[in-house]
Design goal:
single chain, Rossmann fold, three-stranded antiparallel sheet, ribonucleoprotein, ribosomal protein, 37s ribosomal protein s22
């Protein structure tokens, strides 16, 4: 290939690469004498005067001999290794930063580090988007446990207040309608109005479809049932107001308290708030409980109907032992073939309008079970009386009795029929079993399997409140 051909090919490549990136098209021209010398084969194209080929360079012999004399008292192998490290370090050297550049870099690095730590340590709360598909996921995953929890709470409310027949129900954050399902199991014949509020249109449509029996065009079971996206501005009151698993979806403490106050103003008898039985759910429940109880005006006076037997600060929360006050209910998950019963833990509070009539009918709550070798201890939440305090005023005496909530330990002797009874239940747990595999000799192989185990537990009989006589209870 002639030099002109090489030059032509290179110029085309250069134009094709850079012609779209600049408005100036370069023109490459070689020295005419250079082209003549190459054509006359005075020298080859790769050996023209513009090319200077470097040669491999070694240290002069006298310098090498001097270096060997200098290094004769040092370990040569270690010097070679350390010299490589120094060489790498020197190749990575950069000029020092100016003072303003150093400050900017430090600030940026600190900010990046803090953001990284916050992402690891702080929960990244974002609002949930319940579209059609996510609503179906919620129905499958949360429908059964929420219905079980609400059924358990409504059963307690119905049993303790037999005269309570709600004619109206207000459900904030109604979702798929589990509150309506559970409430209809107890007071279906008494409801005249069922008002549901949920910001998700898809959730509201799914809840209506379920009440219609799965048919979107049917009008069955929708008499007196209303759905809205936002809280109404009117002052209509309802016998039973419920917020189930909705407060954790609000973005701030202020919005939670504002929403709770609006729900409390719509309550004529009972306000029920339910959340997950986690530390976060218990914290939110306790905030709502304390907020409503601190309202002093006569119209908004309240007391705790359940689960607390008092209106004082929660002793479990004051202990700050990172153990929530929660309860447990069993349920079976639909569409899954499994024999075991799943457990759902929840925290809740039922607030009733008006002042508490008496604390003598309030039974203490067992909140923790503690096992020992011979005895069984149950920690109960109870309102106990401090010893009387005598204050001398003039010539008379005034006795002040203070009431404080506490956690009291109850000790039951193993097998004492006057305090409780034993019951046997089956739980699925994992345990290790030994299998034998054939080799030259039999070698045991331990494997972990899932299997039902029979567990015997002590069930205490509840203690009556002060002033009530213990009724004999015969366990089945």
């Amino acid at each position: 290939m002639t030099f002109k051909r090489i030059l032509y090919t290179y110029s085309r490549h250069f134009k094709r690469k850079y012609s779209t990136n600049t408005n100036i098209k370069p023109k490459i021209e070689a020295d005419p004498s250079l082209i003549v010398n190459i054509e006359n084969e005075t020298y080859k194209p790769r050996q023209h005067p513009g090319i200077i080929k470097p040669r491999t360079v070694s240290l002069p012999p006298n310098i090498m001999k001097a270096i060997e004399i200098v290094l004769q008292d040092y370990p040569l192998k270690k010097l070679l290794l350390d010299s490589d490290i120094l060489t790498k370090h020197l190749k990575g050297r950069v000029p020092p930063m100016e003072e303003n550049e150093l400050k900017e870099t430090k600030s940026r690095r600190i900010k990046d580090k803090v953001e990284h730590i916050l992402k690891e340590k702080i929960y990244n709360w974002i609002p949930m988007n319940y579209n059609t598909y996510n609503s179906l996921l919620y129905l499958i995953g949360r429908g059964a446990p929420e219905f079980a929890v609400l059924t358990r709470i409504f059963a307690e409310l119905s049993a303790r207040d037999v005269n309570f027949k709600p004619r109206s129900l207000f459900d904030f954050g109604s979702g798929i309608g589990t509150v309506t399902w559970a409430a209809r199991a107890y007071w279906k014949d008494h409801f005249f109005e069922n008002f549901n509020v949920d910001i998700s249109v898809d959730m509201n449509e799914l809840a209506q479809t379920i009440l219609r029996g799965g048919h979107s065009t049917s009008t069955e079971n929708l008499k007196g049932v209303f759905y809205r996206q936002f809280l109404p501005a009117n002052n209509t009151s309802y016998d039973l107001v419920v917020s189930a698993y909705s407060m954790l979806e609000l973005p701030s403490f202020q919005m939670r308290m504002e929403t709770v106050l609006r729900l409390w103003n719509k309550t004529s008898k009972y306000l029920l708030v339910v959340e997950q039985g986690t530390n976060a759910g218990f914290k939110v429940i306790n905030e709502i409980r304390d907020f409503i109880l601190q309202l002093k005006d006569e119209k908004n006076s309240a007391h705790v109907f359940s689960p607390c037997p008092h209106d004082k600060p929660c002793p479990r929360f004051l202990l700050n032992d990172h153990t929530p006050c929660n309860f447990e209910v069993g349920y079976t998950r639909p569409f899954v073939k499994e024999s075991k019963t799943r457990k759902e833990r929840y925290s809740y509070v039922i607030l009733k309008k008006g002042k508490r009539d008496s604390i003598e009918d309030e039974w203490p709550r067992l909140v923790r079970r503690q096992w020992s070798d011979q005895n069984i201890q149950f920690v109960e939440c109870v309102l106990q009386m401090i010893s009387p305090l005598l204050i001398i005023i003039g010539i008379g005496f005034i006795t002040l009795v203070a009431s404080v909530p506490s956690q009291r330990k109850l000790v039951f002797k193993d097998g004492d029929p006057s305090t409780g009874y034993w019951e046997t239940k089956t739980q699925w747990k994992t345990y290790w079993v030994k299998n034998w595999i054939p080799k030259m000799i039999y070698v045991p192989i331990w494997k972990k399997i899932w299997s039902p185990m029979s567990i015997k537990q002590w069930v205490p009989l509840p203690r009556p409140p002060p002033g009530l006589k213990q009724q004999p209870i015969i366990p089945h």
